[in-house]
Amino acid sequence: MMAGGLSDTKSATPEVQQLVNQVKPQFESRAGMNCDVFRATAYKTQVVAGTIYFIKVCIYCRRECFGIKLYR
Fold it and tell me: Which CDD domains does the record associate with it (predicted)?
């Protein structure tokens, strides 16, 4: 991976799921819905001045998948 470039897509890990769990309340508040399931399925990272996570999250309240972007 070149500096600043995106990594390959990887399957979500327990650590990525922990990040997603931390932002679930904020997502639900902004989206105006409660999600029964909020599960990370895949992710990419980008290393710049820290790490940016691009995470595909499947939610089950409307049977939709969303992508979220987390800065760490």
Answer: CY (cd00042)
pLDDT at site 49: 83
Cα separation of 49 and 72, whole Å?
A: 9
Pair 5, 21: CB distance under 8 Å: no
DSSP secondary-structure letter at 61?
A: T
Domain ranges of the chain: 10-71
How many Å is the Cα radius of gyration of the chain? 13
Confidence bin at 60 (pLDDT 50/70/90): confident
- Residue 63 is predicted with a pLDDT of 65
Residue 55 CA to residue 20 CA, distance in Å, equals 8
Residue type, 1: M
Residues 12, 41: contact at Cβ < 8 Å?
yes
Place of tokens 């999250």: 57
